[in-house]
Specification:
By secondary structure, the chain is mostly helical. Helices cover about 50% and strands about 0% of the residues. It folds into two domains: about 30 residues; about 90 residues, Orthogonal Bundle (Cytochrome Bc1 Complex, Chain D, domain 2).
Length: about 140
């Protein structure tokens, strides 16, 4: 067979694969230059203070001090995690079941079975108080 016979198919394949690669790089490309956020820490409620203790032991290794992000995981004090886009239950399910990578290119989050429901409720309270202190409030999520 001559190469010329297959050239149109090769060109189409290159264009399709190139377009797919461009889309994939937008969705799953390298993390932004700075995945860290500067987090203002407010005076915490008692429950949130307990949540900070649990967060520091179970979450900060990937999500950074005070949810500021790290090279291993995204910042939780970020508008993408506002309560209108990620309800409290989403955090609990993430810890219980793990999460496939979807907003950030850090890879999948494994389940955290060592975190019990009471600890998780306190962790969520802590994250929400951090978010509010940093101007992140409920914003209705609209699919685009």
């Amino acid at each position: 067979m001559k190469i010329a016979e297959h050239l149109p198919k090769v060109i189409i394949a290159v264009v399709v694969l190139g377009g797919g690669a461009a889309v994939a790089s937008k969705l799953f490309g390298p993390p932004p230059e700075s995945v860290y956020v500067d987090v203002k820490v407010p005076e915490l409620s008692q429950q949130a203070a307990r949540g900070k203790e649990a967060f520091d032991v179970n979450c900060a290794g990937c999500h950074g001090d005070n949810g500021s992000g790290s090279e291993k995981g995204p910042p939780l004090v970020h508008d993408i995690y506002n309560p209108g886009h990620h309800a409290d239950a989403a955090f609990s399910l993430a810890a219980k079941r793990g999460v496939q990578s979807h907003h950030w290119p850090f890879g999948n989050m494994p389940p955290q079975p060592q975190v019990n429901e009471r600890q998780m409720a306190s962790i969520v309270k802590y994250v929400r108080e951090l978010q509010m202190a940093n101007g992140i409030f409920f914003r209705e999520h609209k699919m685009q």
